[in-house]
């Protein structure tokens, strides 16, 4: 099982995706997702120019050794570009190993710890009627847990709301609020913390009144608050029993969560922009979070995310693996195998991809009554149709950014 070919495939069916495809001398193939939203081509160059030449001729069975070799031989540590590239290699090698074993990957990770993975979707609306419609639509699609994002009076656009989107595929039924917008410049959005803090508790009160106490509700703050503001929000949302409050402060400052924690029992989730176990050292040890948000794609693959989750499990912290549309079906499938196998699974984020994406990436994972399952196909269960992929060349796209009323750039 020697790596014979390594191809970096860029395709943009509904949005940009970067995929690494490895082929062994005995004809097995493996796929890994290397998509880094808005900075895709940096990972392409890292893989093509610096990783592919190192892979050819290596034993495809040596997954841990290849991980350590790529990570340590670069000398430069961590970072989203490096870790997405390492992740793609790691997942492609797991895919190959599981195919060689004739088993779905979750079997090699210890076998199933549950029958399916509870997943949450994103409901959103500019106002309450629009939001309620979106919640109902998600319930019709089977979702048993729902993230709630709404417009804030006085703000033109806000994170997670459909109106600022250009994601046209399957609008209205599937996800129509893909935040990255195609074009040469990032879109500018506006932000006002005081209006937001006043508004959000009223939204959750209305949602609870409409949908009852049982439905698990989540909310993403997208790094916009200071520690004391986040503490206040967590406290004001306590009556509405959130499943979690996500990224309440900018993730770089791990200590910020101490202050938030002192003031609220609302569960906290963080980490979609983290990429190594070292980013979690303090917040896990001090039990400052309840859910780990890293994706397989951005945190060094199955090998490394499993280490993060095993570390977290010692502190009763669970998984909440990142699964927006910028994680390709390859990254999603890898997350499902890992989530099925680990004991400390919490919830899986699941934003459905558009139909064109599903044509490019043929998947074996299933969605049924609010639960995901990776399927029984050997490997991770995703195959890439290169002819379909070739129809959709890369298109420049950026995530939006925020400015305050006085023009100051703010976290998005
Ligand atoms: C989430 C995330 C995403 C990010 C996106 C950035 O919780 O799903 O916040 O929607 O904005 O992944 O690339
Ligand atoms: Mg998020």
Q: Please, how many domains?
A: 2
Question: Major β-sheet, in short?
Answer: 8 strands, parallel, barrel
Unreliable spans = 163-175
| Relative helix content | 25-40%
Give a short synopsis of this structure.
The chain is an alpha/beta fold. It has helices at 40-55, 63-73, 80-101, 105-108, 128-140, 193-211, 227-237, 256-263, 281-285, 301-313, 329-341, 355-360, 386-390; strands at residues 3-11, 17-24, 29-33, 117-125, 145-150, 181-182, 188-190, 217-220, 244-246, 268-270, 291-292, 318-321, 347-349, 361-363, 366-368, 371-373, 382-384, 397-398, 401-403, 409-410.
Highlighted features:
35% helix; 2 domains; binds D-gluconic acid; alpha/beta; Enolase-like, domain 1; three-stranded antiparallel beta sheet; 13 helices; binds magnesium ion; TIM Barrel
Describe the structure in your own words.
The protein is of the alpha/beta class and about 400 residues long. It contains 13 helices and 20 strands. Helix 2 runs antiparallel to helix 3 and helix 6 packs parallel to helix 7 (about 225-235). The protein folds into two domains: about 5-105, Enolase-like, domain 1 (2-Layer Sandwich); about 115-380, Alpha-Beta Barrel (TIM Barrel). The longest helix is centred in the first third of the chain and has 22 residues, at about 80-100. It has an eight-stranded parallel barrel with strand order 4-5-8-9-10-11-12-13, surrounded by four helices. Strand 9 (about 245), helix 8 (about 255-265) and strand 10 form a beta-alpha-beta unit. The protein is globular.
